[in-house]
Amino acid sequence: EPEVTQTPSHQVTQMGQEVILRCVPISNHLYFYWYRQILGQKVEFLVSFYNNEISEKSEIFDDQFSVERPDGSNFTLKIRSTKLEDSAMYFCASRQSFNYGYTFGSGTRLTVV
Amino acid sequence: AQKVTQAQTEISVVEKEDVTLDCVYETRDTTYYLFWYKQPPSGELVFLIRRNSFDEQNEISGRYSWNFQKSTSSFNFTITASQVVDSAVYFCALSEAVDTDKLIFGTGTRLQVFP
């Protein structure tokens, strides 16, 4: 069964450093998403991406965050200057269209020290 | 505004007991989708079910069943004859079909099944 692949599975970074979280969505999917889950809390929407542009973003997704689909297969989330409170599990998801369900990747656990 | 409430923070049962996880949602839309996801200790989100707002039929899949009632805005999940492997956090989620397609998650219910 097709999968959404996220790398790395765990990343540790120093506060103030830039990080890039990578995702390879399912190849025929057109809608892409990033979600975040702070340890022990609920999963929160960050951003949705369609047709090479952001279609919606949450209040969490401020100027420190950006997304890109650089080569037609990867979908990346960049955090420019990480803060301690960015420590969380980040999930990438994709889906084929509005009539289909979401497929989530297994997540990247980001630890900011 | 959209909202999903899972009032049960944690439930503990003994193997073979039946358990029901509650989910209550709020939305202004008439067209929407409801989901359940399982998050085992390994952390990934495992899709369990997706139901659209026009389909109120209950669904059964093996030991899992779902009861969707629009009159009470609830989408409850029952595990029959629970097993230790069912231990996980279960999230209910809502997606509206118009204007936005983001998933709104509830706070989750941690289910512990003891042998």
Descriptive terms for the model:
heterodimer, A: 113 residues, mainly beta, seven-stranded mixed beta sheet, four-stranded antiparallel beta sheet, 11 strands, globular, B: 115 residues, six-stranded mixed beta sheet, 12 strands
Structure description:
The complex is a heterodimer of chains A (113) and B (115). With 113 residues, chain A is mainly beta. Chain A is built from no helices and 11 strands. In chain A, strands 2, 4, 5, 6, 9, 10 and 11 form a 7-stranded mixed sheet that branches. In chain A, a hairpin with a 5-residue loop joins strand 4 and strand 5. The N and C termini of chain A lie far apart (36 Å). The mean pLDDT of chain A is 94. By secondary structure, chain B is mainly β. Helix content of chain B is 0%, strand content 54%. Chain B is built from no helices and 12 strands. In chain B, strands 2, 5, 6, 10, 11 and 12 form a 6-stranded mixed sheet that branches. Chain B has a 4-stranded antiparallel sheet with strand order 3-9-8-7, with no helix packed on it. Chain B has a two-stranded antiparallel sheet with strand order 1-4. Chain B is globular. Chain B starts with a strand and ends with a strand. The model of chain B has no long low-confidence stretch (mean pLDDT 93). Chains A and B meet through strand 4, strand 5, strand 9 and strand 10 of A and strand 11 of B.
